[in-house]
Amino acid sequence: AQTVTQSQPEMSVQEAETVTLSCTYDTSENNYYLFWYKQPPSRQMILVIRQEAYKQQNATENRFSVNFQKAAKSFSLKISDSQLGDTAMYFCASWGSGGGADGLTFGKGTHLIIQP
Amino acid sequence: EAGVAQSPRYKIIEKRQSVAFWCNPISGHATLYWYQQILGQGPKLLIQFQNNGVVDDSQLPKDRFSAERLKGVDSTLKIQPAKLEDSAVYLCASSPRRRDGEQFFGPGTRLTVL
Questions:
Q1: Which residues form the domain of A19?
Q2: Domains: count for chain B
Q3: Are residues A50 and B43, on separate chains, in Cβ contact within 8 Å?
Q4: What is the pLDDT at residue B100?
Q5: CA B33 and chain centroid, separation
Q6: Strand, coil or helix: what is A74?
Q7: CATH number, domain at B38?
């Protein structure tokens, strides 16, 4: 079984600032992946960034980067130079390859608001 | 490459009525998922198909929900009869492989049950 916890229901920052969204997880899988998805009001889930658990190097995608602390089971998302278009719900998710069902396990999400 | 298509985008029904949602995954994607996203929560897996077979439907309320994926391509999710607590966004996702969790989501269907 997997669980994902996001403890920040909502965050608000000024445009161009840096913001960090927190996520902790628990899994019994040895091989797993972690994801951050963005969901704007259009409801389309958009993959922001992905981390393979066996890779020690933190993943980066342009202004988005993660801080993956495997021992602490922590997976935070840092958004640099935030833009108005970053306003959305952000979901942390985990996936394990233990066989059987392999749907994503999502947290409850963080509503990020970028203020002009 | 065309994305995952879903229809309708919105649906409003009375409780005890029936409703059906349609999903067309990305071409060539063997795995298809249906998720339910209740307001204020993350998506929850309802059912997973591999080609036209069910991999897991343990979270599907089978007394009222049913799903099928004929010919391993399109899928339909049906609710009959609907309850107030079924109000949610229903997301369809597809995946080209089952070794890294990468899934592509459709725009979802927002269901309101009155």
A1: 3-115
A2: 1
A3: no
A4: 76
A5: 6
A6: strand
A7: 2.60.40.10
Mutation target vs B (from A45, A47, A105; most B CBs, 10 A cutoff): A45
Query: pLDDT per residue over B1-29, tens digit each?
Result: 689 999 999 999 999 999 999 999 999 99
Distance from CA of B52 to the nearest CA of A (A): 15
End-to-end CA distance of chain A: 41
Across the interface, which of A91, A101, A102 has its CB nearest the CB of B101? A102
Res A99: pLDDT: 61
CB contact under 8 A, A93 and B42: yes
> Who among A47, A103, A107 is closest to B45 (CB)?
A103
B25 within domain boundaries: yes
Instruction: Determine the residue type at B16.
Output: R
B101 domain residue, yes or no = no
pLDDT in tens, B39-76: 989 999 999 999 889 998 999 999 999 999 988 899 99
Residue B17 forms part of a structural domain? yes
- In 3D space, the residue among B50, B40, B42, B18 whose CA is nearest the CA of residue B91 turns out to be B42
* Mean pLDDT, rounded, for A9-16: 97
The answer to the question of residue B19 being in a domain is yes
| Residue among B36, B50, B100 with most chain A CBs within 10 A, to mutate | B100
Residues 6+ apart with CB under 8 A from A55: none
**Number of folded domains that form chain A:** 1
**Residue B67 structural domain:** 5-95
Interface touch A45/B100, C-beta < 8 Å: no
- Check residue A1 and give its pLDDT: 77
